Amino acid sequence: xxxxxxxxxxxxxxxxxSPTRRRNSGILLVLALTATVAACAGTARVTDxxxxxxxxxxxxxxxxxxxxxxxxxxxxxxxxxxxIRDNYPQSEYxxxxxxxxxxxxxxxxxxxxxxxxxxxxxxxxxxxxxHPRAAYAQYKLGMVHFHQIRIAERDQTETLxxxxxxxxxxxxxxxDHELVPQVRGGLxxxxxxxxxxxxxxxxxxYSNANYAGAIARFRQLLEEDPGFIGLDGVYFYLASSLVxxxxxxxxxxxxxxxxxxxxxxxxxxxxALRLTELEAGIQx
Length: 284
Known about the structure:
The protein has 284 residues and is mainly α. The chain has 13 helices and no strands. Helix 3 packs antiparallel against helix 4.
């Protein structure tokens, strides 16, 4: 079908949705929209429409949008949900449709669509701060940033944003909320990425004999994130940095912690040797 016919079909759908005619032509609007989307996108068929009976038009739109979401047809799904948002201000599905619009942008996975997704979820929280689905919107804010986290060697702005949104969720919503496990999992992963970034900076300082810088970075990491996944490496390099600055008595406990807490660590064997040497060296 050529573009002019598609444009005419979409225009007809829009006219049918005007406020003065909506009461009597809601179902026709849905049928026209579905037929137009099917013809232009090639992803739906008019024959798929069930017998609507007394079904509300907004409900049919929502069902069609949900089906498109399941099929990961993000653009088509968004058209259905936008119809609810823009043409049915009193619909019981309107709030959920706004969330689904955000989900479609998140699903597309581009830099531009992530920006739009953040806007949708933030708007939802502004419009419906006490809505039962507000927690979902807050969770999604964290996840959209999480999707954009870069490797540890690169800038960690998105990592920090994800951490902030996940922490906001835990501060605002009950600890027994069903989304808490996902939020905690995302938060832990984001913190580990940030910790790996800081750890690599510390190792760089150590490798370049900037022991004071390394010690400061490793101690800060231990203080700010004692649950960091790479603590064995932090203990080892912190201890090594302390030895190289003649702070042997402070280094020994960190080598010991590698052995006690991470006996299978890649740093365990070397830590054991260093610990033996240091303890022998400080014997009276």
